[in-house]
């Protein structure tokens, strides 16, 4: 009981009557997710004024195309981080999938079969991560750092420094098709469907509630009937599968399969997820905040690119946002702690239970 209590107290602040006594508008708007959405609105408004031709269908079109791989990978990454784990190998799985897909198409495989084969490769990569984390019991950070290097190394060993650039035109055109005369790519419909599916799983199913429970306290989740190992295995499988899907999309979008595809993408994905309000310690977050975080980073990068700012500056900004998104919850918790009374009857009871 002591372990469960200490873990829950360390990773989250217990909701009290005072929290729910606040007005609905305050509980809805005074959140991290709302702050990110407001930040996105302000960045779009400023960029529309400061950058020429930013507010146009063309900008929206290229923005949606650029952030599609990030959005796809951010969906399973959100669920993994909610459990208190992390997957740093997603960009390497993307690269290996890109190389696999290119070699299959070059070897004469029909594109649909090559897509299926590549998705299987992604599932295998996710299964390796899941097995080492759930069955062997290794820390996800150490495991995925190792597989990040291993998967990227396999991709480089298969293709070397060369690139495959010959793909059927009807498939490469699919990534550039628009919905009518709008600036929205056709494949954004698939991404929207994935977002809805993951949002429903995360917020409206027992499986999603189990994910939050694992992040708050693994031991308490197990006592509540959550199969922690199976849940984490499913999440790593989903991460591998959707990373492979992102690799296929990126390959067709650029008409290039190479081992360097997606380099550094994992940091952008993690930055977007944490910026969107998901706690690095697990147990807290919302899907709409993550989507806003992806769009915020994508909008900043797009505006800087249109303003002829180098990619180095974009990386510095993304890195700064990542650091701020990690430390800001701790700062806010410290401020709330300073404002709270030194002792209450509830805290005395908690101290007694923690000692017992």
UniProtKB/TrEMBL annotation:
It is found in: Cell membrane. Its main location: membrane. This is Autoinducer 2 import system permease protein LsrD. It comes from the Bacteria. GO terms for molecular function: transmembrane transporter activity. It comes from Lysinibacter cavernae. The chain crosses the membrane at residues 35-55, 61-82, 89-109, 115-137, 149-167, 187-212, 233-252, 264-282, 289-307, 313-335. It is a multi-pass membrane protein. GO terms for cellular component: plasma membrane. PANTHER family: ABC TRANSPORTER PERMEASE PROTEIN YPHD-RELATED-RELATED, AUTOINDUCER 2 IMPORT SYSTEM PERMEASE PROTEIN LSRD. Keywords: Cell inner membrane, Cell membrane, Membrane, Transmembrane, Transmembrane helix, Transport. InterPro entries: ABC_BtuC-like, ABC_transp_permease.
